[in-house]
Design brief:
globular, 17 helices, 474 residues, 20 strands, four-stranded mixed β-sheet, alpha+beta
């Protein structure tokens, strides 16, 4: 009898087992997003998910900035206000959802709130009509650009009130299991350029991702610099993105000892080209101050600029002129960074360079959430950070990172406050000459140790390459 019961039990496990869901692709994320609220999508994992899940009133792509939801729009005649009337087409979300989502930009607190100071009001006039009010003088190109960013994405109002995510991007969220995975499903008409279902696995260690990739259980993951020599990382299966990021060391401007001479000394002490060549194996590119060189080539139009220099003796001379010299030499300065192998290796190389000019440096590796939280609170002396641009513009490497009103988690993580820079960034009409003025002033003040623009390399499978459109989503 017991034998028969055991047989039935085993059969029940065999035939009643819950079927494992099928996913067309599995993609690794290096960290779990803190949340999926578009107002707070400021890290790389969040930005990547935003491309799949979220969409705003406008979108940016190879065609420029346009809207798939707007039937027509026009500026209303008003002597005192900047008003625009928008008529939605049949494919658009409800005007109430758009009104609710854009109103959050005005009334709620979030890291990039300063980017939306130009938006004064949003009202739905009917099921298909909206009215937007902007600050007088706001350029049409500016508000369109900012309303195409992930932060201005549209959510379902009623669902959000019930702590559910109704998004209007290409994919909808099926499941989110914290620190394990997120499951997404295509929510538009079937399209051969996009997989129907995707699972995003939270895999902090690239060695784990590599193991799963080799077992054909993973289709895409970000390669660390130390994995680029793998036989699998050939030109066919490696996708490289350049010029989208800048890596730097934020120098805490709240410390009066870190004056201009001190900051110049730090910048002169780091042999960037040597570190790029030897440690990063040439998988990074120099910047001019905080700007990737390809942007400088676009905006300078023949104007020459000096490459960053390494001069140990000049660095020592600058240090001697700093306010707190010589006491600063014996002061233990805390250098913070994320605790993964790649960031620690870079941190050790920079630490050695700083110690060679006489400084005392203590390395502190931290979890990502704690590092960003405490940096935003003004803690630590130096912090190794990376900025990934939200959109293709030189201003995205300037405004969030150096605006005096966006210090802390708003982007300005070195607490750099220069009224002259703020005045230019606040101008409604800005051009390439203004950008160069801001860049030169920042380069002179050196609120960071300017490092490099890291190349992003992704190892992908044959299945991933079937979906050509996804290349732009990485």
């Amino acid at each position: 009898m017991r034998t028969l019961s055991l047989v039935f039990f085993l059969l029940s496990l065999t035939f009643c087992r819950k079927e494992t869901p099928h996913f067309d692709l599995k993609i690794a994320l290096p960290s779990d997003p803190a949340h999926l609220d578009p107002l707070f999508l400021t890290d790389l994992s969040g930005q990547k998910l935003a491309k799949f899940l979220h969409q705003g009133l406008f979108v940016q792509d190879a065609k420029g900035i346009h809207s798939p939801w707007i039937l027509s729009y026009k500026k209303l005649l008003n002597p005192k206000k900047e008003l625009w009337q928008i008529h939605l087409n049949a494919n658009a979300p409800s005007a109430k959802d758009i009104e609710y989502s854009l109103s959050r930009l005005i009334f709620e607190s979030y890291p990039r709130k300063g980017d939306y100071h130009f938006l004064l009001g949003v009202s739905s006039r009917s099921e298909t009509e909206l009215e937007l009010e902007f600050k007088v003088g706001t350029l049409e190109s500016e508000w369109k650009e900012k309303l195409s960013l992930p932060f201005a994405s549209i959510l379902g109002k009623e669902e959000w009130k019930e702590d559910q995510l109704k998004s209007y991007g290409k994919y909808k969220l099926l499941t989110w299991k914290k620190n394990e995975y997120l499951d997404l499903e295509f929510q538009r008409e079937e399209n051969s350029n996009f997989p129907k279902r995707i699972r995003f696995l939270i895999l902090p260690q690239s060695s784990t991702s590599l193991f799963l990739y080799r077992k054909q259980q993973l289709d895409a993951f970000k390669l660390t610099d130390f994995l680029l020599s793998l036989p699998e990382a050939n030109s066919e299966f490696t996708l490289t993105k350049k010029g989208r990021s800048v890596q730097y060391v934020a120098i805490n401007q709240n410390n009066p000892c870190f004056d201009k001479h001190f900051r110049r000394a730090l910048n002169l002490s780091v042999p960037r080209e040597l570190i790029i060549q030897k440690l990063l194996e040439n998988h990074a590119d120099l910047t001019y101050g905080p700007i990737p060189l390809e942007y400088m080539e676009k905006i300078a139009k023949g104007k020459s600029w000096k490459e960053p220099v390494y001069d140990k003796q000049l660095a020592i001379d600058e240090l001697k002129q700093s306010t707190c010299y010589p006491k600063i030499k014996s002061t233990s300065l805390e250098f913070r960074m994320r605790g993964d192998d790649e960031n620690q290796a870079k941190g050790r190389a920079i630490k050695q360079a700083l110690e060679e000019i006489g400084l005392t440096i203590t390395l502190r590796s931290m979890e990502k959430a704690s590092l960003y939280k405490e940096n935003g609170e003004g803690k630590g002396d130096f912090t190794l950070l990376t900025w990934y641009s939200d959109f293709d513009s030189v201003w995205n490497f300037l405004d969030p990172l150096f605006h005096p009103e966006k210090v802390g988690n708003g982007g300005n993580r070195s607490f750099y406050r220069n009224p002259e820079v703020g005045k230019i960034l606040n101008q409604p009409f800005k051009n390439n000459l203004n950008a160069l003025q801001v860049i030169e002033r920042i380069n002179e003040d050196k609120p960071w140790i300017f490092l490099w623009s890291i190349q992003e390399n992704y190892l992908v499978s044959k299945d991933f390459l079937r979906y050509n459109a996804l290349v732009d989503f990485l």
